Structures are given as structure tokens and as C-alpha cells.
Amino acid sequence: MHIIPGIVVKHTAYKGNGVFTEQDLPTDTEVEVSPVIVMTAEERKLLDQTLLHDYIFEWHPGGRNMCCMAQGYIAVYNHSDNANCEYFMDYDKKTMSVKTMRDVHAGEELTINYNGDWNNKKPVWFDAV
Question: Which of 25, 83, 105, 116 is placed for a possible disulfide with 29 were both Cys, Cβ 3.0 to 4.6 Å?
């Protein structure tokens, strides 16, 4: 697992916890690489009945219908329709990474788009703040 220095989790007024940077980050900065715990479709059904449902990611290596729980801070990044980061999955290494998609300034919250691509405008399943 690798998280660059100056990346912190803080409480936000409307979204609970979020991930923030204490330093300026240029575009294409790899902020974090963390291992994931991969679970089957059957395990997913059980997770969907718990609070963990809100913290798992779809995981489809070779088209298989699975999910994963990312370790590190990845499960704490909040959604934004105008995200400044994007997440990437490495099925072979069983890791997820987060990279900045534009310059991010010190004090700014790091956000991802829960639909995958950082600039995806498709609605999410909850009321985005």
C-alpha cells in the first residue's frame, strides 16, 4: 500500500468523512495504491444487506461479476460529478489506485466519480451533495 504524504481523512459537514490534500498536487499524480479484498457475487448479496454496501466497488476481471473492498483511504473518497481524481483497478495485482485528473490545491477535497470515469455525468443512486 502506498499513500503519498500530505493526504488526510477529515470530517466534512455534509458527506461524513472525506479525503483531503495538505499540498498542491499536479495533474496525473498517483495519490494512492492500495490492495483490495475480492468477494464473489454470492458474498455481494450479503454485503448489500449491510452498511458495507456503500463502500464496495464493482470488480469484473474477465467479465466475472464480483465486488471488492478497497483498503487504505479509497473507500473514503467522496463522489463528485466534477471529480478531480479517478480510480483505476489492476485485476492482476488486486489493487486500486487513485490519480489526479487536474491540478488539485492544498486544502481541497479529493473526489472520485462513483460511476467510474472522473467526468461521467450519469446520475448516481443517491442525492449527491
Answer: 25
